[in-house]
Amino acid sequence: MKCPYCTAIDTKVIDSRLNQTGDITRRRRECPRCEGRFTTYERVEEVMPAVIKKDGRREAYNRDKVWDGIQKACQKRSVPTQKVDEIVTHIEKMIQSYGLKEVPTRAIGQMAMAELHKLDKVAYIRFASVYREFQDVEEFMAELQGPALTQDDPASLAFPFAANEGAGGTASEGKK
Ligand SMILES: [Zn+2]
Predict the structure, then answer these.
(1) Less Cβ around it within 10 Å: N or C end of the chain?
(2) Taking Cα atoms as reference points, which of 34, 24, 27 lies closest to residue 4?
(3) In this structure, are residues 58 and 50 in contact, taking their beta carbons and an 8 Å threshold?
(4) How many CB atoms are closer than 10 A to CB 8?
(5) Phi, psi of 126 (to 5 degrees)
(6) CA of 43 to the centre of ligand 1 (A)
(7) Distance, C-alpha 103 to centroid of its chain
(8) Mean pLDDT of the chain
(9) Residue 24 φ/ψ, nearest 5 degrees
(10) What Rg value do the Cα atoms of the chain yield, rounded?
(11) Does the structure show a pLDDT above 90 at 98?
(12) Cβ < 5 A residues, ion ligand 1
């Protein structure tokens, strides 16, 4: 790491410590040439894309939000907390595999629904009823009976948005 004072190339680390959550390493460095001291921080590069909300606003992906939504749907069901963790991790891996810079909350919701559908029907219905904001009972019943979420590969649910990426979000963004 280059010295910020005299631009010497070789500086030495005199102290190195992790922060409390273990995701940032703070290094105290010293330049052997000018004896200047400075600090560097090292962290894993964020790999989750931004989330596009219903109203079009973008925000940073938040694992806790996804986790809470799924956990709530699984309340008082025989779903271990560890399973909720697994679902969220699985969803994150799927999202990352698309390599997109942004992902709609709708797509994340669909992935969660597909996972819950496989796991626990009651949890699935709870999640779907909150997430889809059903207008009436008929719509809800149609959802229950429909074959929409029986695909083995939940990733297929999310591909339409990926294909429309150019025509959809990006285009409307340009008009602003
Ligand atoms: Zn220096």
Answers:
(1) C
(2) 34
(3) yes
(4) 14
(5) -60, -50
(6) 24
(7) 9
(8) 78
(9) -130, 130
(10) 23
(11) no
(12) 3, 5-6, 8, 31, 33-34, 36
